[in-house]
UniProtKB/TrEMBL annotation:
This is F-box/FBD/LRR-repeat protein At1g13570-like isoform X1. PANTHER family: CYCLIN-LIKE F-BOX (PTHR31639:SF312), F-BOX PROTEIN-LIKE (PTHR31639). Residues 21-74 form the F-box domain. Gene3D superfamilies: Ribonuclease Inhibitor. InterPro entries: F-box-like_dom_sf, F-box_dom, LRR_dom_sf, LRR_FXL15/At3g58940/PEG3-like. The gene is LOC104210843. It comes from Nicotiana sylvestris (Wood tobacco).
Amino acid sequence: MCPICSKIYQSDTSKESIDDEDRISNLPGNVIDCILGKMPLRDAVRTSILSKKWRFYYLAIPQLVFDDQFCKEVNDFVAKKNHGIFSMFELNYQFNEIVTKYLMLHPRRIETFQVCFPRYLTSTMVPDGGSAVIDVNKWILYLSGRNINKLTLIYTGVLNYRHKLPSYFFSCLDLTFLKLQNFVILPPPKFKGFLNLYQLKLIRVDFANNCFESFLSGCPVLERLSLRRCSGVRHFNISGSKLKRLHIKAFDNFESISLENAPNLTEVTVTLERLVIGLEGGKLISDLVKLVGSLPKLKILCLKWKVSAGLYCY
């Protein structure tokens, strides 16, 4: 072969080798984790069939999100498996089994864990008052030893049910973000607080034994706080030198709101789900206006209260 032809042949073969190179598989592990973490869980699992190298990549995703889309896919899977016949037991079993096994097989640190319990789980209660989601405490126990940063647990469907958080939940000391719906909070006596918690969202959470103030005081770096229809709180004594955003949607069973110990608030939204009428109602609104008026850094203020059934004032 002449020298010119030889060079042409070599350039062609090198070009083919570049085209055939699996560049995605050669990406750093943290980049692959980031890519898979942005995909729906079902699609991330499907990457396991690409090659032997990809077989277990999906198990190491640091962000585990079992959201409404995941619940729908479980529902579709069970319906297909049972030839269109709805089976509550099968749905419960499959949901628990998938989440539990995923956690047990996860080989690395878990940064984010989000579960939105489907209605077919939370609408089924066992005779002793427990929940159909029997593995939730097991999940929390596992996460408590994995340095979890962001945790979201949302019960839907059963308005009057609150799941009591186990004591080892309060061992998740690396939490920076926490969102709970329909749970009971009762910290153990030795609990010192979530010292790294930056954002807290609580919906229909019950603070047992009037633990609201002590729980909040144990979150010294908290900047964003949202409380919606929480019970067990008669006095919303909000404290926190770092707190900047506060959203409260309160039932009619509280007596007062105090913001004196949160001087750095820049945004305050208060919604009162109670009839604010007469002298008592006028005094309540007047006290709130005076209270927020004393906050030197306040930029956004929204007060909303009920004056009659279905009618609110701003």
